[in-house]
Amino acid sequence: MQKGNIRVQTENIFPIIKKFLYSEHDIFIRELVSNAVDATQKIKTLSSIGEAKGDLGELRIDITLDATNKTLTISDRGVGMTEEEVDKYLNQVAFSGAEEFLEKYKGQNENNIIGHFGLGFYSSFMVSERVAVVTKSFKEGAAAVRWECDGSPEFSLTPAERAFRGTDIILHINEESKDFLNAYKVKETLEKFCKFLPVPIYFKDVNETVEAPKEGEALVEPKAINNTTPAWTKKPADLTKEDYENFYRELYPFSETPLFWIHLNVDYPFNLTGILYFPKIKQSHEIQKNKIQLYSNQVFVTDEVKDIVPEFLMLLHGVIDSPDIPLNVSRSYLQGDPNVKKINAHITKKVADKLDEIFRNERTEFEQKWESLGLFVKYGMMTDDKFLDKANSFFIMEDTQGKFYTKEEYISATAAQKNKDGKQVILYSTNPVQQDAYITQANAKGYVVVKMETLVDAAFINTVEMKWNDFIFTRVDADIADNLIDKTDAAESVLTNDEADTLKKLFEQPQDGLHITVEVKGLSADAPPVTATRPEQMRRMKDMAAVGGGMAAFYAQMPDEVTLTVNGNHSIFRSILSNTEAAQKEKLVRNLADLALLSQGLLTGKNLTQFISRSVEIMEN
Predict the structure, then answer these.
(1) Which residue of 210, 227, 495, 522 sits 20 to 30 Å from the alpha carbon of 487, by its own alpha carbon?
(2) CB atoms closer than 10 angstroms to residue 290
(3) Which residues, 6+ apart, have CB-to-CB distance to 375 below 8 Å?
(4) Are residues 442 and 519 in the same domain?
(5) What is the mean pLDDT of the chain?
């Protein structure tokens, strides 16, 4: 029997290990199972080159829970270790001393420390009061040994019995970590970290009662908890559409079938595999971020991938696997590395190329999926200039009649929509149903109105307007139809100046929460009697303020700016002006103004209540 001290120049390194790994202590399962996978892969390699003799037998990893004896055991059938290797790998922690260690890394993120030193095995002490390792090397004549340590620098190394090569790591779970004696907790953690490891993993709860099969029934064989050959590890040519969709359901069991996917497979200048899916999104509020999982050699690392995946593609779902991304052991956050930027740029290019390919080859299908795709494309155009340059060729706009236009096609179809500065005016609607009257008037003048009705569209318009120098966006209700492209001189009104002034004063009645400007113009006789419009720039500022904080909140509380354009050529005003009853005249005018405000969604609360009551009175008279 050998006894000794783990060779660390400090009284106890383990509290330091626990301190740095404590934040996510379930990570010990990932580390120990990953080590077991490594040991298994090594024996396969050694066998293939003839260094490991004989039949390898079934290569698997077994996780055994014994809550009664408070143990959790990770067993593999890999290379195992000799007594000398145990002494080398378990008893020589690569530190020169705790004080020097802490001084050297003072001021650095604590999460970046442990990963430099290969301390995965020692994460077991985060949850254990005692750890035992029983191992037998594949080497001929090697004897099994047992290493044991209670978290102090002292260890014992004794002969042991083990029938087959490989390693058992037996964790005697401490009181603070007794939740890892719960089978559900262990299975949940294995599902999180080990779902796609390349070696079959089996879980057994020794205290679980298993009913014997009834007469005539076959014994149900236990199933591995993991998929050892997930879709991203295969060649695209070997996968069918059904394979991709089935894998998506494996990742997200209750999700709709994705729109399409991109299979990443790069081996130079970095290694990157994975599958990114475009999910089906019917409403903007269904957007879900952080649905991409990062793996390293099929070991789950994190779903916080914002440094690898461009921000706008955080809306995608799927898996990325790269051994070239530097990771630490504890919280698994990405460290700064040039490969990360290269991978980020590559993913952006692959997504843009895929969208361009679908648009060119399957435009009808692309248009049918635009409701979901548009969110990704617009978000990307706002946040990534390189993507914007590529997206200009496949970005499309749907008009209120259901026809789609690229930017260039919109220019060709709307030659008359250029203002006096030569800029193309893109007329848009944020609510085609509510703004139908304005759209009808714009269409009557030959204008094309596109739909911009998602949550990202307000920000998209503000952003690309600055990047597309020859375009401006104008909402269809920003002015009367005659003035949407350029301010024009109104047609001559049939009203005298005095009559126009009288009408203007009748309409200039204060309205709670609104700042109203009234203008009387000579419009077409069949145009609406009163039109309420909200000046584009003022409305945009207020809309942005509504979603901002701080000083923006102040602007959000300011009254809405509204212009009431009174059509002096509408016949109804002859009747109103000739009415000798002042009260009735005021009611009629107020109702016309309220109808215009109602079309803008600006008639609410008591103003709406008064409008309804007044309408009833007018009809009764």
Answers:
(1) 495
(2) 12
(3) 281, 284, 287, 315, 454, 456
(4) no
(5) 82
In angstroms, rounded to a whole number, what is the distance separating the alpha carbons of residues 170 and 81? 15
**Domain, as residue range, for 405:** 395-488
CATH number at residue 504: 1.20.120.790
3-state SS class at 557:
coil
| Rounded Cα distance, 31 and 329, in Å | 8
Query: Residue 407 sits in a domain of what CATH number?
Result: 3.40.50.11260
Q: Which H helix or E strand runs over 89?
A: helix 83-90
Same domain, 353 and 459: no
Q: How many CA atoms does the CB half-sphere of 491 hold within 13 Å?
A: 12
392 close to 410: Cβ distance less than 8 angstroms: no
Strand partners, 320: 274, 294
Q: CB-based burial of residue 72 (10 Å sphere; 0-12 exposed, 13-18 middle, 19+ buried)?
A: buried
Tallying the residues shown for the chain, one arrives at: 621
Provide the greatest CA pair distance for the chain.
118
- What lies within 8 Å, CB to CB, of 609 at 6+ separation is none
Token output for 434 = 């509510």
Q: Which of 175, 178, 190, 147 lies closest to 28, judged by CA?
A: 190
The pTM score is 0.75
Provide the 3-class DSSP secondary structure of residue 482: helix
Q: In whole angstroms, what is the distance from residue 399 CA to residue 92 CA?
A: 70
Q: Could you tell me if 157 and 51 lie in one domain?
A: yes
Domain assignment present for 388: no
| Residue 191 pLDDT exceeds 50 | yes
Between CA 450 and CA 366 the distance in angstroms is 17
Torsion of CA 485, 487, 493, 495, to 10 degrees: 120
Q: How far apart are CA 263 and CA 511, in angstroms?
A: 58
423-456 CB burial, b ≥16 within 10 A, e <16: bbbbbbbbebeebeebbebbbeeebbbbbbebeb
Cα dihedral 389, 390, 396, 397 in deg (nearest 10): -20
Is the domain of 188 the same as that of 283? Answer: no
Q: For residue 142, which amino acid is it?
A: A
544-587 pLDDT, tens digit per residue, is 665 554 444 555 567 778 888 888 888 888 888 888 788 888 88
